[in-house]
Design a protein that fits this description.
This protein is an alpha/beta fold and 397 residues long. It has two domains: 3-56 and 302-395, Aspartate Aminotransferase, domain 1 (Alpha-Beta Complex); 57-300, 3-Layer(aba) Sandwich (Aspartate Aminotransferase, domain 2). It contains 14 helices and 15 strands. It has helices spanning 3-12, 45-48, 57-69, 80-91, 104-122, 142-147, 151-154, 172-178, 204-215, 266-269, 285-300, 302-325, 349-357, 380-395, and strands spanning 24-28, 31-34, 39-42, 97-101, 129-133, 164-167, 183-188, 218-222, 246-249, 260-264, 330-336, 339-344, 360-361, 363-365, 369-372. The strands form three sheets. It has a seven-stranded mixed beta sheet, sandwiched between helices. It has a four-stranded mixed beta sheet with strand order 1-2-3-13. The chain has a four-stranded antiparallel beta sheet with strand order 11-12-15-14, covered by helices on one side. The longest helix is centred in the last third of the chain and has 24 residues, at 302-325. It starts with a helix and ends with a helix.
Length: 397
């Protein structure tokens, strides 16, 4: 452990994270190394960001080439990599237009603004409320935080913004009852990530889409964590045979570089005109170059999405066997593709720490749910190593 560095980090940085006492220095594929040269298998992937693994060669080369050419000019001018990335996203999704920003929270803020602007212009003046779900996580900025359905994250920041209502996730009747004359949109995650990797019923989103259509309200899908191949398809909405009106992306979009996006149908996107929304750094050449390399790799190398689906089932089945063997410790296994949660009967923090000591990085959310979001290139051998480690830790509980 690099004690001096850790002490300086704690001295100079705001105390906003419960960081593990590890100074990461290098990463390749599924592996990372700390300052002391110790190797770890990374089943967190920067919280579902490094979808192609650490320092994927195509992403690294794209960044290097772009860094030598042009870093930033602002959106006062046309930016070629931005247009190329937008084309890839549009041609492979429901959308007609894209807006680029720097993070998932910014993408959610943009989606909220777009929905309200469209509602003012095409629905009715009183339509401004957005319904979201309890257990959701949409970001840390103020509107995104208000939209988030977790009171523990909102505590201390009151009063929150008006215009948001929350209902239980995966409860279509509660959603129907919440819609009123002020509702302009429903915003949901296809799978709740920070909320404990909660997967809805198979027909839930079809019913949500029908509800939106019948009341002439917009459906916003927050695919910040589920998008970019995480569930075995490029976007999670494809599993549910529906199309949203607006979608947010970030995390895996840049393959490790910060970038966010709002995608929308043309009729809705047209509510944004010059001066209504913007971002100084959004869609800068460097981030978009990384995004192009990421999405082209996902689309051109069919192995990656296929591997995510196939290896996700392998991983899921291994965890189900673990649940059977440790039924007093494990409540549930759930997820889709390589976004999987293992709900425990005990706090997950000590399990995370025990895994770190054994050279494996995992994550805990909602207090007792171990969340696994490894790079989409993970293989059976690496999953077997994690399972063996978890088995050893649980035997010692």
């Amino acid at each position: 452990m690099d004690r001096k560095f850790i002490e300086e980090s704690n001295k100079y940085l705001m105390n906003t994270y419960n960081r593990a006492p590890i100074n990461m220095r290098k990463g390749r594929g599924l592996k990372v190394w700390d300052a002391g040269g110790r190797e770890y298998l990374d089943f967190v992937a920067g919280i579902a960001v490094n979808c192609l693994g650490h320092c994927h060669p195509k992403v690294v080369i794209a960044i290097q080439k772009q860094a030598q050419r042009l870093l930033h000019v602002s959106n006062l001018y046309h930016i070629e990599p931005q247009t190329v990335l937008a084309k890839h996203l549009v041609e492979n999704s429901f959308a007609d237009k894209a807006f680029f920003c720097n993070s998932g929270a910014e993408a959610v803020e943009g989606a909220i603004k777009l929905a309200r602007k469209y509602a003012k212009e095409h629905m009715a003046p009183e339509k401004h409320e957005i319904i979201t779900a309890y257990g959701s996580f949409h970001g840390r900025t103020f509107a995104a935080l208000t939209a988030t359905g977790q009171e523990n994250l909102q505590k201390g920041f009151e009063p929150l913004l008006p215009g948001f209502r929350h209902v239980p996730f995966n409860d279509i009747e509660a959603l129907r009852k919440a819609v009123n004359e002020r509702t302009c949109a429903i915003m949901l995650e296809p799978i709740q990530g920070e909320g404990g990797v909660k997967v809805p019923a198979e027909d839930y989103f079809k019913k949500v889409r029908e509800l939106c259509d019948s009341h002439n309200i917009l459906l916003i899908l927050d695919e910040i964590q589920t998008g970019m191949g995480r569930t075995g398809k490029l976007f999670a909405y494809e599993h549910f045979d529906i199309k949203p009106d607006i979608m947010t992306l970030a995390k895996g979009l840049g393959g490790g570089i910060a970038i966010g996006a709002v995608l929308a149908r043309d009729a809705i996107a047209s509510s944004f005109q010059p001066g209504t929304h913007g971002s100084t750094f959004g869609g800068n050449p460097l981030a978009c170059a990384a995004g192009i390399a990421t999405i082209e790799t996902l689309l051109e190398d069919g192995f990656i999405l296929e591997n995510c689906s196939r290896i996700g089932k392998y991983f899921f089945n291994k965890l189900r066997v673990l649940k059977k063997d440790f039924s007093s410790s494990i409540i549930d296994v759930r997820g889709l593709g390589l976004m999987i949660g293992l709900e425990l009967t005990m706090p997950g923090g000590p399990i995370v720490e025990a895994c770190v000591k054994r050279g494996i990085l995992i994550n805990c959310t909602s207090g007792s749910v171990l969340r696994f979001t490894p790079p989409l290139i993970v293989v059976e051998k690496e999953i077997d190593q994690l399972i063996d480690t978890l088995e050893d830790i649980l035997e010692r509980q």
